[in-house]
Inverse folding.
């Protein structure tokens, strides 16, 4: 399967994992920012909860801006969960933990010397040695908290800094999506199906699935840098999200399951939630705003159920959608 | 599971099951059955003999933290039903400090810490035990400082002469379990890593750990990658640079649905004669009981959990300073 996925790639990369981990290190830690011209397609579509960006030119500038502000940034690859793509290449769901010191002034304000640690989940389609389609969720809420502001206030600041509600960068929604070359939906491995079933049942308000399917001692890693554990931890997190958007439509966008040597069975799921902020929950008083949540979840399974979960959405992008519609500052 | 009740399918099932019965179902009295009358329990804080003291200790903990829960993260084990098992059980323990007790007047604060218990089990009973709780993690989460807490414990227990003596080989008692674990390669690999670090060959971290390693250390400390992991181990070793390091027990396992993993119990015994995580050198004689659990992946050691007890180390240092 790996040989099939790696056809058309530089032979130095022996597998999708080696390619994804290697290219990331070359670009960031090794400062080969120019290699983005080779590794990112000219018309790549990068969707993050904060925006939709087309083309690799902007990515190079953004990478330099980040490194100017956080020169010691490290990107540590925790896992690469992948499947083969129709038409060649593969879809990689890459989980990273990033560390960085806020050493110089930049998009995040004056230098604060704050030490940051946050996760990223990036789904990339790679074919012929190049990434040409991407979905990226960075834990902006964790960054905001570690810099001493709430996700809501960070969103308000972004709207202001970007020139106000009319001209600011619009968060990602299906309405401003741009079609890219990848149209796959993953593979049909049982562990992917199992994770899809768990998150779908939770979204359908069937919270009994948590004690039934999660290990009692599960380690859980959630947006805004929350590390928690067990049935209560999962229940409180997912309850808080769905309570804010009680009638929202949950969709599974992409699902991968894998069983690899030396690794537990694991899964990656990209999902979305579309609906109205009509309930009390994680996002406070209901505002009636229409919200799109882009989420990615990674899970490890063990003998007693789901043993580790990593779920990310961008809390600041959700607040930005709410504030843009309520007009609050 | 010969000799064990037929309700238990395997050793992890037994360990997780009786832990749940004793704590969450409040079956303290089941300790009369599950723990032998003369069981030695060794904690960094000291040695306790017999199941009646265990029952009383459990009761005191529940009085202090009535909502206390224990959730098992892993059971890494060796041995057989006939010769006896050794289970190295890593768990999370959480609760709210609503009663007074060992940790002082109630603070109303919640804590979540990790503990590792090595238990010898045979004939449906636990008959030997070594247990480390992240006491420094509790103390910190309740808003106190581990060094000051150790000082207060000494005073409360009647001063350096009268206070409860932390565990050291002189305080140890012989128990029925004589095993040293198994010879699985992953246990050996973890022992080699720890031994090289304690031989001050810290390059082993970059050679053997995954770059994205998640490392969990005492005092509720979580770090990622090489540099911060190195810092934690160097901080310990540099406080006791000439101490003797020993591997006490070693298990490796490969089980379905889990990464290859290992459990090692180790000790570090010698003088507090260097600058490190325990401040200015005092020359005190210190015994460190330690546990390390690890999971390995395709790029090396991927997750590490280490426990030793800062509070008992401070207690030994402060007792000898007078």
């Amino acid at each position: 399967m790996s040989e099939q996925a790696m056809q058309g790639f530089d032979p130095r990369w022996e597998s999708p994992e080696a390619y994804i981990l290697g290219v990331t290190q070359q670009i960031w830690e090794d400062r080969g920012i120019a290699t983005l011209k080779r590794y990112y397609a000219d018309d790549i579509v990068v969707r993050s909860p904060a925006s939709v960006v087309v083309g690799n030119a902007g990515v190079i500038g953004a990478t330099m801006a980040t490194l100017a502000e956080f020169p010691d940034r490290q990107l540590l690859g925790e896992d690469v969960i992948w499947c083969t793509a129709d038409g060649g290449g593969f879809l990689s769901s890459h989980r990273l933990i990033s560390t960085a010191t806020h050493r110089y002034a930049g998009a995040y304000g004056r230098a604060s010397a704050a030490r940051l640690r946050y996760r990223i989940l990036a789904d990339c389609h790679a074919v012929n040695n190049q990434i040409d389609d991407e979905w990226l969720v960075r834990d902006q809420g964790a960054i905001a908290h570690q810099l001493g502001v709430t996700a809501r206030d960070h969103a308000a600041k972004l709207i202001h800094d970007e020139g106000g509600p009319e001209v600011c960068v619009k968060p990602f929604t299906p309405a401003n999506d741009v079609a890219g070359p990848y149209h796959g939906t993953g593979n049909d491995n049982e562990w992917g199906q199992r994770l899809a079933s768990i998150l779908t049942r939770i979204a359908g308000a069937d919270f009994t699935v948590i004690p039934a399917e999660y290990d009692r001692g599960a380690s859980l890693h959630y947006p805004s840098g929350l590390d928690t554990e067990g049935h209560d931890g999962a229940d409180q997190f997912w309850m808080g999200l769905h309570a804010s958007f009680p009638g929202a439509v949950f969709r599974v966008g992409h699902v991968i399951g894998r069983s690899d040597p030396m690794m537990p069975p694991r899964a990656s799921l990209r999902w979305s939630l579309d609906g109205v902020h009509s309930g009390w929950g994680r996002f406070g008083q209901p505002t009636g705003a229409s919200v799109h949540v882009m989420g990615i979840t990674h899970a490890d399974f063990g003998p007693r159920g789901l043993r580790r979960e990593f779920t990310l959405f961008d809390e600041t992008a959700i607040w930005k959608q709410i504030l843009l519609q309520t007009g609050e500052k | 599971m010969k000799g064990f009740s037929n309700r238990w399918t395997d050793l992890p099932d037994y360990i997780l099951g009786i832990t749940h019965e004793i704590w969450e179902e409040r079956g303290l009295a089941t300790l009369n059955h599950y723990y032998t009358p003369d069981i030695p329990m060794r904690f960094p804080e000291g040695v306790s003999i017999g199941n009646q003291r265990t029952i009383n200790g459990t009761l005191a903990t529940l009085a202090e933290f009535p909502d206390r829960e224990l959730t098992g993260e892993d059971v890494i084990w060796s041995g057989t039903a006939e010769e006896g098992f050794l289970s190295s059980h890593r768990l999370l323990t959480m609760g709210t400090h609503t009663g007074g007790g060992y940790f002082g007047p109630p603070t109303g604060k919640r804590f979540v810490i990790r503990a590792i218990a090595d238990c010898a089990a045979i004939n449906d009973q636990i008959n030997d035990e070594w247990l480390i709780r992240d006491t420094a993690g509790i103390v910190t989460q309740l808003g106190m400082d581990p060094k000051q807490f150790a000082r207060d414990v000494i005073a409360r227990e009647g001063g350096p002469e009268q206070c409860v003596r932390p565990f050291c080989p002189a305080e140890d008692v012989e128990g029925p379990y004589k095993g040293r674990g198994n010879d699985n390669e992953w246990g050996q690999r973890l022992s080699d890593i720890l031994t090289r670090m304690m031989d001050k060959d810290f390059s082993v971290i970059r050679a053997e750990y995954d770059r994205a390693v998640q490392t969990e250390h005492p005092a509720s400390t979580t770090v990622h990658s090489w540099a911060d992991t190195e810092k934690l181990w160097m901080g310990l070793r540099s406080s006791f640079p000439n101490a003797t390091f020993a591997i006490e027990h070693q298990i490796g396992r490969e089980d379905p649905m889990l990464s290859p993993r290992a459990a090692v119990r180790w000790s570090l015994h010698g003088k507090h004669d260097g600058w490190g995580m325990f401040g200015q050198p005092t020359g005190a004689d210190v015994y460190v009981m330690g546990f390390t659990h690890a999971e390995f992946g395709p790029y090396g050691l991927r997750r590490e959990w280490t426990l030793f007890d800062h509070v008992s180390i401070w207690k030994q240092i402060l007792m000898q300073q007078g």
User: Anything to note?
Assistant: Chain B has a mean pLDDT of 96. Residues 250 and 264 of chain B are 4 Å apart (CA to CA). The domain at 185-321 of chain B is CATH 3.10.450.50 (Nuclear Transport Factor 2; Chain: A,). The first strand of chain B starts at residue 40 and ends at 43.
